[in-house]
Design brief:
Number of domains of chain B: 1
Oligomer: heterodimer
Distance between the termini of chain B: 24 Å
Structural class of chain A: mainly alpha
CATH superfamily of chain B: Potassium Channel Kv1.1, Chain A
Strand content of chain A: under 5%
Distance between the termini of chain A: 130 Å
Largest sheet of chain B: 3 strands, mixed
CATH topology of chain B: Potassium Channel Kv1.1, Chain A
Number of strands of chain B: 3
Radius of gyration of chain A: 49 Å
Largest sheet of chain A: 3 strands, mixed
Structural class of chain B: alpha+beta
Number of helices of chain A: 28
Number of strands of chain A: 6
Helix content of chain A: 55-70%
Strand order of the largest sheet of chain B: 2-1-3
């Protein structure tokens, strides 16, 4: 192309040519029969513009062309587009709008291609908006500004119709809302201000009305179901035609109207609110409640409170049950009888005899035992049940763990019938761990139960009290060889250590270790005896040496030992001196046991008795008949001990001694004789 | 060369230059035209007439297209322009937005 050859194109001329092209485009858009643009047409149009812009001034028509470009749109819109939309309403209007918008975009694209040359230099030089923007802003200023209110209302009314269950054209709504977004030309303000704000207000209003009526008619679970459904549908709505940025705002509004506003009313509904759901174990509804309320701010606080109250109430009810059982004396006695029967000791015992002998009832461990077992078992079950709730329905939320903990702390620290919960727990453990405990469980079951008991310990505030009780009972088990299984003993100590720290269990562990050491010690003692024929106690002697610090303190009385036993003590003391010089041995006779051979008239029977009992019986080797005071002086014991001692030998199941007078209780004026006529079918009996 | 991948550029004198579409798209103007909405590519056979560009220039421009592609791929050679063609070449380049 040469400069010379080119004629200057006049503005009118050039524009007339362009106008033809524009008209052709309009026709195509309107759907009139019109051949498509050929590449030649395109190039001609482009070239015309090009030439008109590159001509020397005053024929450089860039500015005019820029203006005419805009005018083309304005003219088309005002003459054709606007009227066609204005004359329609509602859904038809929306359809027309969408169609016109699509057309407009096409038109902009074509025309800006034709006029492209302007974009390259002219607009940059004059800092003008590019052609694309000009085109869109024409539509915005003429069409959108006027109609967006109507459009918005139409859209919102369609949305509400859909909410009521009608089918609407979702694709149409999507297209309309896309216009709001696109017209913003990169910013979301048009969408947000002109549509979203109003939509949110309308949504709030809609759900507020619905909620007001539902809250009165529906039960809590039903209401929640509806709420969940609504939230799901609104989310769906966003996915289908609303802009994704609306989702959080929309859901928040809905949640607010349905849940936050009516939260308390909902939870406290008389027969179906949170309390009722907990009471009736409606796990599914509770899960739903959690899901819904976790979305609103501070929504879970009231729920967790109600949960806490409920659990506390249930726990306290258990405590009361146990309390009632314990206080009912007759019940207790019955329980005692049952207990004794379990232990195999019920023979000629009747209810009357029970009531008469006070000390029997006082040491009525058995009667208490059963209600302790029942109570602790029930607390464990309660804990399991509600822990499962926290884990499943309440998805392990910390707030609910906290509530559970607080609830248990409240009632676990209430004592029952004078015994603190610490004592109850210790008794429960003792029962599981000792031989002959009433709970016959498999190893696994035992482990599980111990695990749970240790967990419950976390709720008890006076844990050291538990430690004390536990230690006492552990001592009894260890010393009287009543521990059922060493592994379980160690296992529970490990668990306690994990939960409460090493300090807590150090003494107990010491006790268990002591026994192992004691066995070793005993072996050494026997070796010593074998190698020293002079050192002969004369009786088979087993000594268990305990470390003072670990064990509970036992009172040691200066029992007057029979001569035979004195020798034993001496021999052992000598032996012990060979081992260590700097330790002091203190003998606790109250814990010892003795095997005596009793030569009765009918047959000889081996008697297993306590050391105290043995000392008393051996007195009768040298005298046939002794009075209460004589026995007391010779043994050098307190009244209480003597009474108990003599009772066990003369008024209990086995009458080794005859008492004069033959009443059921010991008095200081009684006399005692060896009962040579005593007989029992067993060759070996325990009189402990 | 397959039919679909090519375009025909026709000079003022009626000479037809058949080149790859890819090469032709170096020119923004040609690219715009070929990718316009509407029914272009299928109905037409990718023919573009330039009544104002002479054959010599158009030829040079086609060469430029290919050189430009090569350069973009890393082969950095020189593109020689005869001085007497320069002015017209520049104007054509401006027109074609290249």
């Amino acid at each position: 192309m040469t400069m010379n050859e080119r004629k200057t194109i006049d503005l009118e001329q050039g524009w007339e040519f362009m106008q033809k092209g524009i008209t052709k485009l309009k026709n195509i858009l309107e759907g009139h029969p019109e051949p498509q643009f050929s590449s030649e047409d395109y190039m001609m149009l482009y070239t015309t513009i090009y030439n008109m812009c590159t001509q020397k001034p005053p024929h450089d028509y860039s500015q005019q062309l820029y203006d005419k470009y805009r005018e083309s749109f304005e003219e088309y819109i005002t003459s054709t587009v606007l009227p066609s939309i204005r004359e329609k309403h509602d859904e038809f209007m929306l359809r027309e709008l969408v169609k016109r918008w699509a057309n407009h975009k096409v038109m902009v694209r074509w025309l800006s291609r034709f006029f492209h040359y302007l974009d390259r230099y002219f607009i940059a030089r004059r800092s003008l908006p590019p052609l694309n923007e000009v085109g869109l802003s024409c539509f915005r200023d003429l069409v959108y500004l006027e109609l967006n209110g109507k459009v918005r209302d139409a859209v919102i009314s369609l949305i509400d119709q859909e909410r009521e269950g009608e089918q609407i054209d979702r694709a149409l709504l999507k297209n309309v809302l896309d216009i709001f977004v696109e017209i913003g030309m990169g910013q979301m303000d048009s969408y947000e201000n002109d549509f979203e704000a109003a939509m949110l207000i309308d949504t709030s209003g809609y759900y507020s009305r619905k909620a007001s009526s539902w809250i009165l008619e529906d039960s809590c679970p039903d209401y929640m179901l509806k709420a969940e459904e609504c939230l799901k549908r609104e989310k769906d709505r966003v996915a289908h035609y609303l802009h994704s940025s609306s989702e959080p705002k929309l859901l928040e509004k809905v949640q607010h109207e349905l849940l936050t506003v009516f939260a308390n009313q909902l939870l406290e509904k008389e027969h179906s609110g949170c309390h009722a759901l907990l009471r009736d174990d409606k796990v599914e509804d509770l899960s739903r409640m959690f899901r819904l309320f976790s979305k609103i701010p501070r929504g879970l606080d009231p729920v967790s409170n109600i949960f806490k109250q409920h659990v506390t109430a249930e726990g306290t009810a258990l405590v009361k049950q146990a309390e009632d059982a314990a206080n009912n004396k007759k019940v207790c006695i019955c329980l005692f009888v049952v207990w004794e029967w379990l232990q195999g000791r019920v023979g000629e015992v009747t209810l009357a005899t029970m009531e008469e002998s006070p000390c029997v009832f006082e040491s009525c461990d058995g009667g208490k035992m059963l209600y302790v077992l029942v109570f602790v078992r029930k607390v464990i079950e309660l804990h399991d049940k509600y822990l499962a709730y926290v884990n499943d329905c309440f998805q392990n939320h910390t707030l609910f763990h906290k509530s559970l903990k607080e609830a248990f702390e409240v009632f676990c620290n209430k004592g029952v019938a004078g015994s603190s919960s610490a004592e109850l727990l210790a008794t429960f453990c003792d029962n599981i761990l000792k031989k002959g405990g009433s709970e016959k469980l498999s190893d696994e079951a035992i482990e599980e139960t111990l695990e749970k008991v240790v967990k419950l310990l976390a709720y008890i505030s006076d844990k050291d009290l538990f430690a004390e009780f536990y230690r006492k009972k552990l001592a009894r088990r260890l010393l009287f060889d009543k521990s059922a299984n060493d592994d379980h003993e160690r296992s529970i100590l490990t668990k306690l250590k994990q939960q409460c720290g090493g300090q807590f269990t150090s003494k107990m562990e010491g006790m268990v270790t002591d026994l192992t050491l004691a066995k070793e010690n005993q072996n050494n003692f026997e070796e010593y005896l074998n190698s020293n024929p002079n050192a002969n106690p004369g009786i088979d002697l087993t000594v268990t040496v305990l470390t003072t610090g670990f064990w509970p303190s036992y009172k040691s009385f200066d029992l007057n030992l029979p001569a035979e036993m004195v020798k034993c003590v001496e021999v052992f003391r000598e032996f012990y001196q060979t081992k260590t010089k700097h330790r002091k041995l203190t003998w606790i006779y109250s814990l010892g046991t003795c095997n005596l051979i009793g030569k009765f008239e009918t047959r000889t029977t081996e008697l297993i008795v306590t050391t105290y009992q043995a000392s008393a019986l051996l007195l009768f080797n040298s005298s046939d008949r002794l009075s209460y005071s004589e026995i007391m002086t010779q043994l050098n014991l307190t009244d209480d001990d003597v009474i108990r001692l003599l009772h066990s030998l003369s008024c209990a199941k086995y009458k080794i001694l005859n008492k004069e007078p033959n009443t059921k209780s010991i008095s200081p004026t009684d006399h005692f004789e060896f009962n040579s006529k005593f007989t029992d079918k067993m060759r070996r009996i325990k009189v402990l | 060369m397959k039919k679909e991948d090519t375009v025909k550029l026709i000079s003022a004198e009626g000479f037809e230059f058949v080149i790859d579409k890819e090469a032709a798209m170096v020119s923004q103007t040609i690219r715009n035209m070929l990718t316009s909405p509407g029914s272009f590519a299928e109905t037409q056979d990718g023919k573009v007439t330039f009544p104002e560009i002479s054959t010599t220039i158009l030829e040079k421009i086609c060469q430029y297209f290919y050189w430009s592609l090569q350069y973009a791929r890393g082969k950095e050679t020189d593109f020689h322009i005869e001085p007497e063609l320069t002015l017209e070449l520049m104007m054509a380049a401006n027109y074609l937005h290249t």
